[in-house]
Specification:
With 285 residues, the chain is of the alpha/beta class. The protein contains 9 helices and 5 strands; from the N terminus they run ααβαααβαβαβαβα. The protein has a single domain, classed as 3-Layer(aba) Sandwich (Rossmann fold), CATH 3.40.50. The protein starts with a helix and ends with a helix.
């Protein structure tokens, strides 16, 4: 059972991260993939501030856990989570995000930003990269985990299931997949359009994975799922399927296809920050 003090600390960090996301979305001249950023905020906060073995003062330590953001369009959420963990300064993100030659692009680039394990953006590739890292770790007898954050939309890609089959076949228990299961693609809902992903968890289990299904906004459940992970030298990969809400925390964004990506006016930003403060006070976010 998750420690109540830990859950409270992580919820506070998640609220602060949402505030930073909204402020950046309001300040930036272009659009931000704010809907998917908000759906995965609680998960990323739990990983960077609780689950993963990482050290911002020693980003290349050999025994560190690796994190792959396969849904690379949600990079700004990862940047802010890393900044809050101490990897770099939050003001660097807000002042340079999306600008020419900025280290903080709309998709992450490992060349531009030390601490990012791999560049990403083209969907469906992250789990394959995770398999390569996991196999290398096994060959070198190194015991760390490789976390791969995916959106449920990208799991329509065949490359994801080829990688899932490989991970199960090679018994790569050092891989942890995390699916932001918000049921929305860019222009349609997953279960009402042409691509029906259900039965979702059973698909992963059929490929030899241990599937954990949780509420991706319940910090206690997230912490419990992390605590239940098998040792990195186990023989069964794990996927955490987190049921989430796109745009979580802001009523006019939640489950609205129009907020896959968007720009906030000053009025919209004030409204969002006021609502989030009230919901945080109630314990909703």
């Amino acid at each position: 059972m998750a420690d109540l003090g830990t859950v409270k600390r992580l919820k506070e960090l998640a609220y602060r991260q949402r505030v930073s996301l909204i402020e950046l979305c309001g300040a930036y001249d272009g659009t931000v993939h704010i809907g998917g950023d908000l759906s995965m905020t609680d998960l990323l906060v739990a990983l960077y501030h609780y689950g993963m073995n990482v050290d911002p003062c020693n980003i290349a330590m050999p025994e560190r856990d690796r994190f792959i953001l396969s849904k690379g369009h949600a990079a700004v959420c990862m940047y802010i989570a890393m900044a809050m963990r101490g990897f770099f300064d939050l003001t660097d993100i807000t002042s340079t995000y999306g600008q020419l030659d900025s280290a903080y692009g709309m998709h992450p680039c490992k060349v531009q930003l030390p601490g990012v394990e791999t560049s990403s953006g083209s969907l469906g590739h992250g789990l394959s990269l995770a398999c390569g890292m996991a196999l290398m770790a096994r060959q070198r007898k190194e015991k760390y985990r490789i976390y791969c954050m995916m959106g449920d939309g990208e799991t329509c890609e065949g490359s994801v299931w080829e990688a899932a089959m490989l991970a199960g076949s090679y018994k790569l228990g050092n891989i942890v997949g995390v699916v932001d299961r918000n049921h929305q693609f860019m222009t349609q809902f997953s279960e009402t359009g042409r691509m029906n992903l259900e039965p979702y968890a059973e698909k992963w289990r059929a490929f030899g994975w241990h599937a954990i299904e949780i509420d991706g906004h319940d910090m206690g459940q997230i912490v419990d799922a992390i605590d239940a992970l098998p040792a990195p030298d186990s023989e069964r990969p794990t996927v955490i399927i987190a049921e989430t809400i796109k745009g979580k925390g802001i009523s006019y964004m939640e489950r609205d296809l129009g907020w896959h990506a968007g720009k906030l006016s000053e009025e919209n930003m004030r409204e969002a920050l006021t609502e989030m403060a009230a919901r945080h006070e109630r314990g909703d976010i």
